């Protein structure tokens, strides 16, 4: 694989960009791999990447029913932060943030990481107490966040209506290291690195069955034929439950649609990311000038990647009351993704009842920010057969032992 650099860009500019090679190969599947990862979203690709990079396991296939990054990884609003409440969450989300900080250099691929700062608005006394508690917890975890008053909030976000109309802004939980990254670039950069290590990314190949023998995995059936493996990782987000059913076990997950919107481009008007969890809306501005907007989940369980009118209406209402100047903005695009939510709003990185099948899911509405940390932890789990320190708290056994990692407040609106 040829290195991307300013010299490569200059060289290609001189020859009409005819010399760029494909970023990843698209091979036919082999009959057998040491490890198969189902799902070429960010978490599946990062799992494969760190399996190769950290553990030297490169006989890996990543099987994707659509196109890589076409699931939630390419549909999210790209918010990155690590200001969660519980220690296991702080561990994995901050590891992810640290890896994000150097990921462009590591992958030799510009993921457009933009640590522009992130605010979570407090709009009730209850929320204010909750966020102050998070600041104290973060201090103990060694994660830098702070509580800021409403005047500072207004100076950081001049377009914000801090007085209402429904709820005034009382202050905010602020993480200066938080921000965004280009979601497609994260998937593409990881895919390029995996392919370069000799791993096979098989797109347009749906897994239709999982073969087991004596309680141990043997392989998978796909629309491109049967493939054997020694270890299998299910990383299919909103479809984790349906894929786990193929192996004969159930997961404690609910799948629901989450929507996002992108407006027409406008001049720079907001240079931080802002989440308003009480009224359910959040906002950032892309490099092109579009406002990237989101809200809460659609409540009925479903697998439609669209979302309902009710949620659109609620989110628009919240956005307009919070940022009145955007009331006449036109929307360019709207879409939905299927997110996988657990009872404690924390992910699952775990062994399963079937030997050598591992599962990584339950990231719900907030897993983009976790991609490198999750991949790191999952690769360790697969390579060693036991969870390392990052994955330890997120086993399936927590649901039977009542040892929840409750992030229902930090997950908030959700990201
Ligand atoms: C609208 C929206 C906004 C969001 N905003 C944010 C945000 O701002 N910040 C944040 O941190 N998170 C956010 N998220 C959540 C985040 O996008 C997800 O948690 C994360 O992308 C999950 O990644 P993944 O790799 O697990 O799943 P996915 O990217 O969904 O990948 C799973 C893949 O598995 C494939 N698959 C499924 N079934 C099969 C099968 N049978 N065979 C083969 N392949 C299969 C799918 O096609 C898919 O490509 C948002 C999500 C949505 C929908």
From TrEMBL:
Record carries keyword Nucleotide-binding: yes
Stretch forming the signal peptide: none
The protein's required cofactors: FMN; FAD
Swiss-Prot/TrEMBL keywords: Cytoplasm, FAD, Flavoprotein, FMN, Nucleotide-binding, Oxidoreductase
Location, primary (coarse class): cytoplasm
Keyword Metal-binding in annotation: no
Substrates-to-products reaction catalysed: sarcosine + (6S)-5,6,7,8-tetrahydrofolate + O2 = (6R)-5,10-methylene-5,6,7,8-tetrahydrofolate + glycine + H2O2; sarcosine + O2 + H2O = formaldehyde + glycine + H2O2
Family note: Belongs to the SoxB family.
Protein name: Sarcosine oxidase subunit beta
